[in-house]
Amino acid sequence: MQSSEIEVSCFGYSQTVFSTHRPDRLCRGREYWIYQPEEVEEEVVFRTVISGTTILDQEIRHLSRGIRCSGHSLGDIVSVLFSQKIVGWVEEGDPNFIPSSACGVELYRMSRPNAKVNKWCARYEIKIDADELDDLVELGMDAWVVNPNKRAKTEPVPENRPYPAIIDEELNHPVLCEELRNAMFWLTGHRNPQNKHACFQPVAIPEVLKYCDALVLLHKDKHDVCLGIYTLDAEFEFSIDEIQEKLSSLVIPFSIPPMLARWDRALKEFYLEKHIEELSFLNTEDSEESEEDE
Fold this sequence. Notes:
Blueprint: E1 8-19, E2 32-33, E3 44-55, H1 74-81, E4 86-93, E5 103-110, E6 119-127, H2 133-138, E7 143-146, H3 178-188, E8 198-200, H4 205-209, E9 214-220, E10 225-231, H5 240-247, E11 250-253, H6 263-274
Parallel strand pairs: 1-11, 2-8
Antiparallel strand pairs: 1-3, 3-10, 4-6, 4-7, 5-6, 7-9, 9-10
């Protein structure tokens, strides 16, 4: 097969257990966990990580990596993975660009070390339509919950606005219960501008999962984001056949999260096991290089 004829879209996934006491490292140089004390009580959840790439030639050592590097949008893969209600969370949004469908909007002044003094930010939740997902990510959404518990109609709505509603302004009440909103703040609300690559507090993940079926975090891969899907009682279930059929992509298993692993090795192992015609151009000779990504 000539290099000019090669264009293979791939998604890679891993399914492992995840400890909140000693959380697995993330993509080197791209993302870290928010610092937490060593005394944190250990809890274990399940984690599924999904990333992507596109093979364009026979030199597969240095591939572009991340969901959208597969040639598909975030909305494309999310529409296949999730049929339930999903609600996104924005922690440090721009008050000038709040979607009209945002719920439970809180405006606040951020005063944190090494940040601009009294910078205005917006915190809100928003029901996700897969077609709009990529636009919401551009607005700062990097986490969402799947099938969250319903908020009781009698639950009080806290006021956190520095001014009353403007004439004709529509205020959408929160759809997440206050316990889940508090857990999401614990997860995302302790970021420090001095380390902009630290986005999430791992110890908060089990608390979030008490109030929803799954938590999805947009982790960083080498060139784009990848999905970290956290569940409490069992591994996240998804249909490999459905991804391959609807997105015309290969689905490659990894023993460790794809943002840490070697795609070339995983692809060769997959071909040797499955003998997929789309990968017949691969050189399947063993490599002596380490498993860890450069």
